[in-house]
């Protein structure tokens, strides 16, 4: 694994576009590029000929070797729309060590967007912030990607997660193939995020949820602090109590198990990411789900 995939190292690269390219270049160096679909390759993969296929894409060399007809899938046949959904509510200001959840989400989204762009995909951005929804429609051109990076760089968490909206209308597009990537800490006051995920799952798009949590949250490690304050409600809780910490650990495991069951039941790909964790696994998960959505 490249050190450049470490989020703490990435924080030293202030240019988000450069950071994204650095992450993906380091990641791709460890992959067999012939397994990766997208722009920059002569073709992405072979598949068996089907009646009605354009004969211009027949590979006659493969036919000579195997006596079977194969079609070369081109970039345009494998391009999809990838929409990034970012939780930008105030809880994403939670800090663990040197970085916040928003920092981690920002660099993660930028790297995934660059990877999608390399594969010829359209990319879009939706940010749930302060009860409102910012949207940047999906496009494929480099100028649009630069706009997406600009919005990510300037996105600052505020307020609560967006309440009821017409999610079905927002995320129902004309494209047949679409991948939705939701980056969030899953912190909610009611069931606003759960309702959003249920609506998105019902649309039958491929959906990935990257759940960001800090090591201090997972291990209840707040050395030197006796109380914690909720970033969105201002409520405080006493943590200087052994029994409280024990019950917290039990409750956390039950909470995470419940989330996994919920995601499994809705056929949503779910990955818990620690803020001190390399972006390597997230990039692999994204690539696998992206290729599932085009088959």
Automatic annotation (TrEMBL):
<protein>
    <submittedName>
        <fullName>Uncharacterized protein DUF58</fullName>
    </submittedName>
</protein>
<feature type="domain" description="DUF58">
    <location>
        <begin position="45"/>
        <end position="250"/>
    </location>
</feature>
<dbReference type="InterPro" id="IPR002881">
    <property type="entry name" value="DUF58"/>
</dbReference>
<dbReference type="InterPro" id="IPR036465">
    <property type="entry name" value="vWFA_dom_sf"/>
</dbReference>
<dbReference type="Pfam" id="PF01882">
    <property type="entry name" value="DUF58"/>
</dbReference>
């Amino acid at each position: 694994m490249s050190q450049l995939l470490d989020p703490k190292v990435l924080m030293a690269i202030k240019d988000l576009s450069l950071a994204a390219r650095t992450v993906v270049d380091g990641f791709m160096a460890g992959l067999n590029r012939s397994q990766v679909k997208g722009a920059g390759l002569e073709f992405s993969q072979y598949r068996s000929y089907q009646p009605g296929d354009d004969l211009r894409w027949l590979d006659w060399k493969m036919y000579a070797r195997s006596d079977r007809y194969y079609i070369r899938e081109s970039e345009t046949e494998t391009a999809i729309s990838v929409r990034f959904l970012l939780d930008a509510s105030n809880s994403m200001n939670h800090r663990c060590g040197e970085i916040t959840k928003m920092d981690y989400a920002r660099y993660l989204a930028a790297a995934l967007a660059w990877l999608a762009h390399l594969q010829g995909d359209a990319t879009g951005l939706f940010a749930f912030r302060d009860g409102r929804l910012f949207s940047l429609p999906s496009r494929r051109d480099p100028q649009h990607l630069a706009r997406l990076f600009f919005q990510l760089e300037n996105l600052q968490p505020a307020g609560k997660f967006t309440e009821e909206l017409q999610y079905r209308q927002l995320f129902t597009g004309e494209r047949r193939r679409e991948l939705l990537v939701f980056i969030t800490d899953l912190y909610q006051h009611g069931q606003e995020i759960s309702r959003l995920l249920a609506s998105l799952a019902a649309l039958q798009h491929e959906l990935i949820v990257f759940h960001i949590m800090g090591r201090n949250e997972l291990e209840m490690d707040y050395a030197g602090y006796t109380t914690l304050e909720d970033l969105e409600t201002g409520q405080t809780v006493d943590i200087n109590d052994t029994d409280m910490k024990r019950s917290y650990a039990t409750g956390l495991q039950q909470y995470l198990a419940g989330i996994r069951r919920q995601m499994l039941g809705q056929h949503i790909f779910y990955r818990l990411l620690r803020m001190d964790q390399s972006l390597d696994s997230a990039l692999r998960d994204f690539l696998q789900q992206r290729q599932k959505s085009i088959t």
